[in-house]
Amino acid sequence: MKKKIHIHLDPLGGVSGDMFIAAMIDTDNNFKKIAIETAKNILKDAHLDIKKIKKNHIEGTSLSISIKNENQQQHRSYKDIVELISKSNIEKVTKDLGIQMFTKLAQAEADIHGTQIEEVKFHEVGAWDSIIDNLISAKFIQYLNEKYETTWSCSEIPIGKGVINSAHGIIPIPAPSTSLLLRGLTVIDDGIPGERVTPTGALILSTINPNSHISSANNNTLKIKKQGIGIGKKDLKLIPNILRILLFEESKTSIKNTKKQVLSELTFNIDDQTPEDLAISLEKIRSTTGVLDVIQNAFIGKKNRATFEIKVLCRPEESNNIIIKIFNETSTLGVRNNIIGRYSLDRNILRKGQFNIKSTTRPSGKKTKKVESDDLKNYSYKKRKILRKKLED
Length: 393
What we know:
Blueprint lengths: L2 E8 L6 H11 L2 H13 L3 E10 L2 E10 L8 E2 H10 L4 H22 L7 E2 L5 H20 E7 L2 E2 L4 E4 L2 E4 L3 H6 L5 E2 L10 H10 L13 E10 L10 E9 L7 E13 L4 H12 L4 E10 L5 E9 L4 H11 L6 E10 L1 E6 L2 E7 L5 E5 L9 H12 L1
Parallel strand pairs: 1-6, 7-10
Antiparallel strand pairs: 1-12, 2-3, 4-5, 8-9, 11-12, 13-15, 13-16, 14-15, 17-18, 18-19
Helix pairs in contact: 1-2, 1-5, 2-5, 3-4, 4-5, 4-7, 5-7, 8-9
């Protein structure tokens, strides 16, 4: 059985191929040997300059790739790159993943230019250093998938702003192909200009397909095992241009028969909506996808008004849609969003006739059962007591 690990990316400065590789090497020096061997198997004249440096008083690892005795051709077709990868000395599984990655990038370029994938010409990404970046990243991903049961997550990805000079002239940031590769991932505008995610960085993110929260790690308790800092080449002035990687292992101290979950707790107050109308609104919120529970408490708020505090527990990945629902269905003007942890016991549903019976095993080993309340709602109090005793014994 493979060991479970979870890798979380914090792209404070952004994500590029060299930053990802450098951060992985900084996390575990074994990746340095893998990177050097992979580069040599792709192109024998490739040289990796891997060193420790400081950026804005933070120490990390940087990576530069140079090619000895090689004309640094930049313009290659998709077919050319597939042929180069196929003829290289890297193992087949890495070749296959590398070709899949370039195919994904080529498809994005084809969609942008309204052409066929076979007609795509790569420019900056067609240079040897970019090809090597992509293939080393593919090797790292393939190595992790083979050795571990690996899950990934990533904090909000800085989208960047402004324009960049490309082979096609001046284009907006993020580059069109980068935008397509980042579809479905969570981005943020932190107000800092420049290209924050390169096409290679976006391709890596698209390949690992990270969740937005560390909670993607099989709902288990985690412990930080290692940290790595990859330092980029650009100077962002206001913040350090770094990509941090945290490597987690599953904690051995997890509670027996339980799952650790990370949830969003959405909290808001209502003091100007009638209880009748609020009840209707809360039922609509309760039925929204991702909502696990809705809790309300009454208290006296500002100006001695009767106030309801509402807490909505939900799946983090659905929180944005639920917040929109809250604003549309209630009179509140503000919602607080906190990430909280929750332990829950594993449970099974048994069926006896028309009754659903929830069963679980406590950490002590004791087994307990409970009839679903909704299945008893049409019976009298006396009959409910009899049924509970009979069904739960």
